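Go through the following before class.
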Amino acid sequence: MLLSFALFAAENNYCRPILDDSFIIDIKGGRHPVIEQQLPPGEKYIENDTFLDNETQQIIILTGPNMAGKSALLRQTALITLLAQCGSFVPAESARIGIVDKIFTRVGASDNLSLGESTFMVEMNETASILNNLSARSLILLDEIGRGTSTYDGISIAWSISEYLHNHPAYKARTLFATHYHELNELATFLPRIKNYHISVKESKNKIIFIRKLVPGGTEHSFGIHVAKMAGVPQSIIKRANEILQRLEKEHGSDVSAMESDKTKSSGDAYQLSFIQLDDPLLENIRDEIVQIDVDTLTPVEALMKLNNIKNMISKEKHR
């Protein structure tokens, strides 16, 4: 194994990583060790720098078009960290890795038909496992959280997860969060350890050129229709999709931007739902039902039963 590490490192220009007790991951000129081997002869892998710590840049919100390389950046960060900690040189110009005890990933889409679980249910199960088991030295990689449900549901879940990771009372887990929800870029305006980055592209005559370079700042374009065109979707569909996109952008804009970010509390605080404060008998009953719940001992089945009780209370009120 060690001979293989040495031979591969020498042949592919790997560097010796620095491992220490800090909470810093500082990779200069990082490359994906697998994708790099699959490139056509003569084509150079586009290197990228990645920096995470628990004081200034704990969470990176990563936006950019489909196929630009967001997922590759997440994976290469995990692989470089893993290679460093198992005794190998790493594909980078330099790398400093503050010891990581757990690497959590929520990447890709899948369902579990045998257990009756949808893609979104699998996604939420895995996300819940991450959030319930993270530590101060964890490295968390989230790719497109929330895409398995409606747009506004997805944005709300992704937004809330980002706040939770940033405001966790005990742990500041280092996190890379790739998303198409450009609204999440607004989190950086009021959460100091969240930073926005994007994978750059160049537009030229209604075409896009993938630069594959990580640069600071968010982006508001996914270029999904461009990718559909590249894949060979019929031109009539592409044209109609552009018309619908322009209409939707005019009608809806960014509703999430109106969120009251200045009222955001740390997740260590109790979140007060506004409807609980209303003077309404039904809402008072719902409030009492929620207040009596012991979340520390609640099982998933009990949670569903409680939710069903609340739903029945609302249904009875509607039919009066």
Q: What stands out?
A: The longest strand covers residues 194-204. The CA atoms of residues 89 and 196 lie 29 Å apart. The first helix runs from residue 2 to 11.
